[in-house]
Amino acid sequence: MITRCERRGQVEVGIIDHEGHVYAAFGSCVQGHNVTGYTRNRNGCITLTRWDGSTMLASRSEIVREYHDGSIAIMFRLTNLRFLVGFALGDDGMLFRGELLTDCDGDHARRQAIELAEYWSAIDAEDEADPWHGEPDETDGDYSD
To answer: What CA–CA distance (Å, rounded) separates 54 from 60?
Structure first.
């Protein structure tokens, strides 16, 4: 298995070559105020990493709420009344989706983190219930000759 990471501006694509097949997925991304990355628990502190494991953000993190499935609402304190808040599927090696907040206090950032967690949790539940969004997948229908 060979892995590599390619960057196009602020977007990262992770690529895996495995047994003659190539798989690709979006990695970390910064698009305006929206941020996507991966959590990494290092000595009890959560950082954000890129797909290849390199550090994107190692700032003061706070788990705002932990859910029964292990997912978390999290915020990172930045300077000048800025916060990065969002939702991650777990605290180590899991997808983080969030946004940058400016000119606000910690209480507002915590509320926003919970709102984003609820939003992304609902999206994930919809995807799990119908991953093909009404489109037939390989197991639907009769494909025999």
So the answer is: 17
Contact status, residue 95 vs residue 65, Cβ threshold 8 Å: no
Q: Quick one: tokens of 21?
A: 């097949």
116: which 2 tokens? 């984003």
pLDDT tens for each residue of 72-117: 999 999 999 999 999 999 998 888 999 999 999 999 999 999 999 9
Of the two residues 133 and 18, the one the predictor is more confident about is: 18
Copy the structure tokens of residue 32: 């305006």
The answer to whether residue 135 is domain-embedded is no
User: What is the four-CA torsion angle of 24, 33, 87, 45, rounded to 10 degrees?
Assistant: 90
DSSP-derived 3-state class of residue 108? helix
Question: Is the pLDDT score of 64 beyond 70?
Answer: yes
Contact between 21 and 33 under an 8 Å Cβ cutoff? The reply is no
Predicted model pTM: 0.76
68 domain-assigned: yes
Three-state DSSP class for residue 2: strand
CA gap 13, 55 in Å, rounded: 16
Please give the residue range of the domain that contains residue 64.
Answer: 29-128
Q: Let me know: does 74 contact 45? Beta carbons within 8 Å.
A: no
Q: How many domains does the structure of the chain reveal?
A: 1
